[in-house]
Amino acid sequence: MVEDVSTQSRECPVARTLEAIGDRWSLMIIRDAFDDIRRFSEFQKSLGVAKNILASRLKTLVEVGVFDIRPASDGSAYKEYVLTDKGREIFPIVISLRQWGERFLFKPEETRSVLLDNASGQPLMPLEVRSANGQKLGPLDCHRVRLVDGES
Q: Alpha-carbon distance 133 to 130, whole Å?
């Protein structure tokens, strides 16, 4: 018997994350927010996305707590979308996607953007998954279990 997809999604952190932030436009909006874009018009200009799609994605990102809406920092009548602590925690996800793309989706002669450390001016070290004691882990070094909070 096939398990109900909604049950799988309910229990899977990856599925829940993709439902909240996993579509292309949401991730591109978040990426732009890390580049200090805050206003609807700035997101629209940067991304070239239709206004209705941008409005829908921003609404969802506010609802899930990735952004707060605040008065414009320059005192104008505009509103700004500001990453929350929860939103800033998405940074490693964006970096992971960036590094995978840099590694596998560009030819050596192609122009690309590179993210540099402000302090050193150097590219970031590749992200790695590590065990609690610091050992580098791959997919075959991990397994998942069902966990219910409060149960041991």
A: 8
Q: Which residue has the tokens 């439902």?
A: 19
C-alpha to C-alpha distance for 107 and 105, rounded to whole angstroms:
7
Closest CA to 64 of 131, 112, 17: 17
Amino acid identity, residue 132? Answer: A
CB atoms inside a 10 Å sphere around CB 8: 11
User: Rg of the Cα trace of the chain?
Assistant: 19
How many whole angstroms separate alpha carbon 93 and alpha carbon 101? Answer: 12
* Whole-prediction pTM: 0.87
Helix (H, G, I), strand (E, B) or coil at 35: coil
Burial status of residue 10 (CB atoms within 10 A of its CB: 0-12, 13-18, 19 or more): exposed
Give every residue of the chain whose pLDDT is below 50, as ranges. Answer: 1-3
Domains of the chain plus CATH, in order, are 5-141 (1.10.10.10)
> In this predicted model, what pLDDT tens digit does every residue of 31-55 receive, in sequence order?
999 999 999 999 999 999 999 999 9
